Amino acid sequence: MKREETFTFVKGLPVHQVIDLVHATERWDSYITFETKKASANGKSALGLMSMLTTLKLGEKVTVKANGEDATEVINGLKTFFERSELTQEPLDYWEEAGVETVEAAMTGCLTAWSDDVQQIAKSYLKTTRS
């Protein structure tokens, strides 16, 4: 049996959650893949999922495909996992997303005019809002 589900993320997964995710996928027999527009990863590969899921951006979609006898259980289990970790909350509407992008663009554009201390604070902020 084949099952497929697309999830919209509000941010990337922290490393410890990717490891928890891999442990969860290893208990199922189905072949599991995670796909974005740019990449595909084996659902039981820590390195593959680490490189994909830790760098997700706001609103990015990930399609999970499960192929096997327990495919329905896989998809339902992953829905529960993502809901519990609050990574697939409702995406921002157009105006909220445009506001975030505008602020990030303005901050990035102003970096050269700021002192070194202010630049470090802004870079730190941008890293935390993108992760």
Summarize the topology.
Elements: E1 2-8, H1 15-26, E2 31-35, E3 40-42, H2 46-53, E4 61-67, H3 71-84, H4 94-110, H5 116-130
Antiparallel strand pairs: 1-4, 2-3, 2-4
Helix pairs in contact: 1-2
The proportion of residues in beta strands is 15-25%
Following the backbone from N to C, one meets helices and strands in this order, namely EHEEHEHHH
Calculate the mean pLDDT score and round it.
Answer: 81
Q: What coarse outline follows from CA principal-axis ratios?
A: elongated
For this structure, the CATH topology of the largest domain is: Histidine-containing Protein, Chain: A
From the N-terminal CA to the C-terminal CA, the straight-line distance is 35 Å
Protein name: Phosphotransferase system HPr (HPr) family protein
Keywords: Transferase
Pfam families: PTS-HPr
GO molecular function, one term: transferase activity
Tell me about this structure:
- This protein is α+β, with helices and mostly antiparallel strands.
- The protein has two domains: 2-84, Histidine-containing Protein, Chain: A, CATH 3.30.1340.10; 94-130.
- The chain has five helices and four strands.
- The chain has helices spanning 15-26, 46-53, 71-84, 94-110, 116-130, and strands at residues 2-8, 31-35, 40-42, 61-67.
- Strands 1-4-2-3 form a four-stranded antiparallel sheet.
- Strand 2 (31-35) and strand 3 form a beta hairpin.
- Helix 1 packs across helix 2.
- The chain is elongated.
